[in-house]
Amino acid sequence: MSAAEVQARAERIASLPFESIGQTTTFFRGTRSSILDIWSHRELLGLLTRRELKSRYKDSSLGVVWSLVKPLAQLLIYYFAIGQILGAARSVPSFAIFVFIGLTAWGLFTEVVGNGTSSIVGNAGLVKKVYLPREIFPLSTVGGALFNFAVQFIILFAAMVILGEVPLSWTVLYALMGMVVLIVFSTALALLLSAINVYLRDIQHLVDVIILVLFWASPIVYSFSFVHKALQGNLLEQIYLANPITLSVLSMQRGLWVAGQNDVGTVHWPADLDIRLVVALAVSVVLVFLAQRVFSRLQGNFAQEL
């Protein structure tokens, strides 16, 4: 390219109007504008989701099968280490199904939050070169996580069919409600953390530590009955139940863990679990709204920071 062509191109670029990025409208009207902007780029959102799935299994012979390897490996480790060696399986009926329900829910949460936190930084090239609603990057990780969740849930359902423990009662609604709370709450965290991580790169490492703590703060490899016996319904138990991840895991167990539903003598469920889920969903929706507003405020300087 000649010097004259470079000069002409620079002049054309200089004549273009500036594209405003970030919050430019009122607080509530900005939410509507952002939703419409994301909706107008929904095809791109789908492409980014498919790209993430393809890149994850690129040059892999087994492909999507690898999405099952980690949870199955975790299932075997926790089943034998905690279930058999430590004896948890003796006090938790159908321990394998119980653990796999928790691991399936936990896998969805960790994938949305973990991949969502680094989604903006990981797509720095696109952020700096073209305009598009930046929310689609953490949202694309939600789409990829839901795909893997669906694959793992199919395996879980197949195991329940083989063992003759398919839930057929109305309690399955607990599981559906728990999934919704889990998705909405995880999306809120992904939006918020992905924006903050652009400015503070230590966030993604802090998230790994917090996720590790939250795993053991949720009844995934141990029954809530142990927590109830230890805390006896005091303030610490209420704080424990205030965690939306804990409520989501408990509700999925309440809806899908048939052996736990039938064994009323040893398995304890929190009081008013349905009301707690409704409150958790309402709080999660508010958090999504607030997270998107914070994201919109911060995204104006993404390109400079990256």
* Count of the domains: 1
Sequence of secondary-structure elements: HHHHHHHHHHHHHHHHH
DSSP strand count: 0
Give the percentage of residues in beta strands: under 5%
Q: Structural class of the secondary structure composition?
A: mainly alpha
* Mean pLDDT value: 81
Shape: elongated
* Residue runs with pLDDT of under 50 for 5 or more positions: none
Separation of termini?
28 Å
Provide the gyration radius in Å: 22 Å
The share of residues in helices is: over 70%
Number of helices: 17
Write up what this structure looks like.
This protein is mainly alpha-helical. It has one domain (41-305). 75% of the residues lie in helices and 0% in strands. The mean pLDDT is 81.
Q: What does this entry show, briefly?
A:
The protein has 17 helices and no strands. The two termini are 28 Å apart. 75% of the residues lie in helices and 0% in strands.
